[in-house]
Amino acid sequence: MNTGPIKSRDRDTILQALSAGVVPRVGLRHVQVGRAGEVGALVRDIDRIADGGSAFRVVVGEYGAGKTFFLNLVRLIALERKCVTLHADLAPDRRLHASGGQARNLYTEAVRNIATRTKPDGNALASIVERFVTECVKDAETRGTSVESAIDARLASLQDHVGGYDYATVLKAYWRGGETENEGLKASALRWLRAEYSTKTEARQALGVRNIIDDADVYDAFKLLAAFVRLAGYTGILVVLDEMVNLYKLQNAQARNQNYEQILRMLNDVLQGNAQGLGFLLGGTPEFLMDTRRGLYSYAALQSRLAENTFAANGLVDLSGPVLRLQSLTPEDLYVLLGNIRNVFAGGDPSRNLVPDEALPAFMAHCNGRIGEAYFRTPRNTIRAFVQFLAVLEQNPGTRWTDLVASVAVAADAGEPDEDIVDGPSEAVTGGAPATDDELATLRL
Hints:
5 strands
């Protein structure tokens, strides 16, 4: 597919990422193929968020099947719809519920990655706050009142939210910092909004607030932030959380269930209409969802809410439920994808293509012979091999692609190491189930 000329910077960024097996941060439109139904369903979710509604989706796919690519694509669509997006990967030190700062770390990482249409690469919190404060200054001049009074009036609706009063205090401190050219005060306000204060004493000394965003407040902080960005002139926020499998890997069953309880709370709020202008996209593997010992299905309330439509069988799909299972790319989709990658290599100029059209099915046939149908079901390694194949042809003029294609090494995607994350004392120590009880969760017959 020819999408016109491609900037050399975007070309290099895309190819470097694909060669390493990761998702590029720019230029996704140049390589996107297939999954039109899934993308359409998420676009409807984004439109609902923009109308003041809410959305919750668990996006499920195998390792290498394109979850992260899909999530990034949806995030970019949300930015075009004037949404604010936040994204973060879960990790051993970042999760939804904790008591040792891990939940606050997740919120901090997400807000650091906050993005808007004009700042799609993240770190857009300061510009959002500036936009809000500027509107408050205009209101104050129009009404002949103080700016602090205008900020209080605009944020009056936040008083119903947990932490809403502190938001007004922090934003007034940010405005004062701008008026007095006190960059330290402005930085302190942004630190509080990013949940970077670990103690209330430090926050009180810097800003005069009595509370901070802590582990117990993370979901409420997301709801409050959604309300704030709407007051700042945006349509809402979309929170994208990837690598949810890190919750599945938690060895401590109590810690795992507490995180699942937080997911249940988020899901209930969305389904009952208690959240406005807020959407969540959670990316995980089938085991994270369906494992009845350690996955979301191990929590009965979540299993009942996330159960798939039993009528969606024999080729029928239902894209309206909270679980969105990514359909595998077809061989035809992969053929188009390889053509797109060839086009990126050529900088969007078909006359500079490194290989002719017949090289694409020849490469796919080689992959099929090496790893079977997995080459298009989990295409990460296939894409990586094709990028490396073209790189060799580009850097070695005169090399015939027919001689090289048979020597391309392609391996099936083995996924990530299935290592447990130890979190606190084992169940055997705490008096619960034996610590070895979960070891059977990785058993496959």
